[in-house]
Amino acid sequence: MPRKVAGATERFRDANEPDEVSGEIDRLGITPLHLRHDDYPAQLAETPAAPSVIYVKGKMLAADEPAIAVVGSRDATPYGVEMTRRLSYDLARAGVTVVSGLARGIDTAAHRAALEAGGRTMAILGSGLDRVYPQRNIPMAEKITENGALFTEYPPGVSALPQHFPRRNRVISGLCHGVLVVEAAFKSGAMLTVNWALEQDRDVFAVPGSALSEKSKGTNWLIQQGAKLTTTADDILEELNIERTSVQSLVGNQETPTSSNKSGEFGENALDNLARENNVLSIEHRVVDLLEKSSEPIHVDDITRTLGEAAAAVSSVLVMLELRGAARQVGSMQFIADRERPVVSP
To answer: What positions does the domain Smf/DprA SLOG occupy (predicted)?
Structure first.
């Protein structure tokens, strides 16, 4: 820790922290930052109701701007997890810091994808940094401190309580330039984060989902209200005028699994991407063929098993078919072909 920061931190501890809490802060390698401290994140400091102190473990860099919050359902669908993985991976590869809340579901998928991309990610907790919740994400929290940071407004020893999370959400949005909602019920924590984002004058992005899925009612409504419809990382990068440079220059100019090759050079990465796109089209045609041949609705598990494809890939295709009016969900995860509409793109 720089001497200047260490000295300011020591003075803050002496004035504000009980001895036992200060001892835990030292033992855990945590840095408390007062709102007026030079290292307090500027984006967050400018927001209404910014925490008077935040506790940080890990590394904060100037490169953590720009940052995007990725939020959504704890009980994410395979489609939601896959879209989170793709978007977060591409954002991290573009040099964007991915911010989320370390919860299961969408949060976990976002942090994991950013780490896999070699990018930076920050997790905002609703507890002390020694009380990571859920406990199964403790290993991930440790990895985040190696290539990012953990944040909280709660001192060591404070457990995760239900009333902490709505307030925690203002920190998630406050640290970022925009909030991406991947999956969310109409009444959910992710929608509370959107409320904070709007109050903080942040951009809101939303991934479209099935009109019949409870977990997409919030995101679809946000799009109707003017949120930016988002299916690729470029939708966010272009809206915020962010250039794809930072991480690529640090870890090598590799294409991400889902981004297109814009250089015009048809190299190995472009061939890989083309193969993936062709595979998606192949799955789409096979799903449509299967639905059209059946007089009864087919459960998504049966479609996956029949085609021998990954559940996430099949779920993603089904959502796209629904959005085009090519398929309909008629029961709990059961689908039929919509024979009144054209089913596939030429």
So the answer is: 35-240
Average pLDDT over residues 83-88: 95
Instruction: Give the sign of the dihedral formed by CA 155, CA 160, CA 162, CA 167.
Output: positive
| Cα dihedral value 295, 297, 300, 305, nearest 10 | -30
pLDDT at 258 over 60: no
Q: What span, in angstroms and rounded, lies between the C-alpha atoms of 284 and 282?
A: 5
The more confidently predicted of residues 147 and 69 is 69
For the whole model, what pTM was predicted? 0.69
Give the separation between CA 90 and CA 244, rounded to whole angstroms. Answer: 9
CB distance 53 to 35 below 8 Å: yes
Phi, psi (degrees; rounded to nearest 5) at 341: -125, 150
Quickly count: other Cβ atoms within 10 Å of residue 174's Cβ: 25
**CA-based nearest residue to 108, from 149, 127, 136, 128:** 136
Q: How far is the CA of 131 from the CAs of 28, 57, 58, 134, 255, in angstroms?
A: 11, 13, 16, 9, 37
State the Cα–Cα distance between residues 300 and 223, nearest whole angstrom. Answer: 26
In sequence order, which residues have a C-beta less than 8 Å from that of residue 79 and are 6 or more positions away?
183, 209, 210, 312, 315, 316, 318, 319
pLDDT at 254 over 80: no
Distance CA 125, CA 109 (A): 16
DSSP letter at 8?
H
* DSSP symbols for 40-63: S-HHHHTSTT--SEEEEEE---GG
d(CA 221, CA 200): 20
